[in-house]
Design goal:
The chain is α+β, with helices and mostly antiparallel strands. The protein is 26% helix and 38% strand. The protein contains 2 helices and 3 strands; from the N terminus they run βββαα. It has a 3-stranded antiparallel β-sheet with strand order 1-2-3, with helices on one face. The N and C termini lie far apart (55 Å).
């Protein structure tokens, strides 16, 4: 038994979509990340916009951007 657990347990379904656009012009590279975070509304049986900070789930776009930067740096290193 977990004393800090809420009863009854709440099950939430999330859909987290990231669109990453990478464009290169000469020696510069532009990275654009768009995030769409949705929560399933069981009463309406539909997906609605949600707040990932409030739900404390998913990967922040800033972390994703940093990972893309690292991988692009590795790709250009001989």
């Amino acid at each position: 038994k977990i004393l800090s657990a809420r009863f009854p347990p709440v099950e939430r379904d999330y859909r987290d979509t990231y669109t990453i656009n990478v464009t290169s012009a000469g020696s510069s590279t532009k990275i654009q990340i768009q995030r769409k975070f949705e929560v399933h509304d069981t009463q309406a049986n539909n997906w609605v916009d949600g707040d990932p900070a409030k739900e404390k789930v998913g990967i922040a776009p800033e972390n994703l951007l940093e990972e893309v930067r690292v991988r692009l740096g590795e790709a250009t290193t001989p």
